[in-house]
Amino acid sequence: MNTTNILSLGFQRQDIRLIFSMFRMNLNDKYLGSLLGTAWVVIQPLLLLGMYTFIFGFVFKARLPGADTKLSYAIWLISGLVPYFLISESLMNTTNCVITNSSLVKNVIFKTEILPLASSLIAFVPFLAGMIFLFILLLIDGNYPTWHIILLLPVAALQLIFVAGIGLFLGSTAVFVRDLREIMPTVTLFILFFTPILYPMEIMPRVIQRITFFNPFYQAVKPYQDILVHHRTPNWGGIVYLIILSGFLIIAGLGYFRKLKGYFEMAL
Fold it and tell me: Which of 54, 64, 149, 196 gets the highest tally of CB atoms within 10 A of its CB?
């Protein structure tokens, strides 16, 4: 194996192109038959985020400690929900990716490990729509972005590696354990309520706060709130932790997937 293959984890240039081709195909297939088609991938998160903004900003009139604007809490909440939705959508998509593409897996020769990678990319479309919505709220609230905004790109890239690594385990395991697809909605709900997304971590007992530092989903969401709401650099300890964990997941996930993929045809 040459150096290029080591750095690319066994992928070649044509595999990268195929990932984006599969991304476009899966995106179209997901909303096949609906009246608005792929427009739903943008409309759905915008409707959901608009609902959260209305309920918490104008109905409950929740306030963020230290802030005095109507939208402060809604902005803080949405800055956590947008990356959470990316995680949730990615986990759901990657769990189903091999099963929903079973005809391709059985009839076409290609590196099937690209399926979880392509499926995780789908979640970035509503993620971008949510980020645009969030920026509009920030401008309306007078909370203008600072230079810290340039950190969003590497943070989002790291989050993609993180969810893709998990997706490699989920997509390959779900072929043999079909119940995994049924429990994933509950798992993503647990992630939402047991990760400080709907509430600030400061209200938790100090012991739980220390444990929460090692919650990778918290470390994947918190940088967005630091950058967009508090205008500060993320906690570098948390970022380093997520980098190490994501690197491990993507390498171990690829090895795990490649060991199982030879048995996919018998199970599908």
Answer: 196
Residue 231: left (phi > 0), alpha (psi -120 to 50), or beta? left
pLDDT of residue 2 exceeding 50, the answer is no
Q: Cβ distance 180 to 265 under 8 Å?
A: no
Helix (H) or strand (E) holding 54: helix 40-54
Phi and psi dihedrals of 10, rounded to 5?
Answer: 90, 5
CB atoms within 10 A of CB 34: 10
257 backbone φψ class: left, alpha, beta (φ>0; ψ -120 to 50): alpha
pLDDT, residue 155, reads 95
- For residues 52 and 166, which has the higher predicted lDDT (pLDDT)? 166
CA 14/CA 227 separation, integer angstroms: 36
Question: Is the CB of residue 154 less than 8 Å from the CB of residue 76?
Answer: no
- The closest alpha carbon to 249, from 165, 159, 145, 177, belongs to 165
Please state the pTM of the whole predicted model.
Answer: 0.87
Tokens of 194: 């047991």
Domain boundaries, the chain: 22-267
Asked if 23 and 93 count as a contact pair (C-beta separation under 8 A), the reply is: no
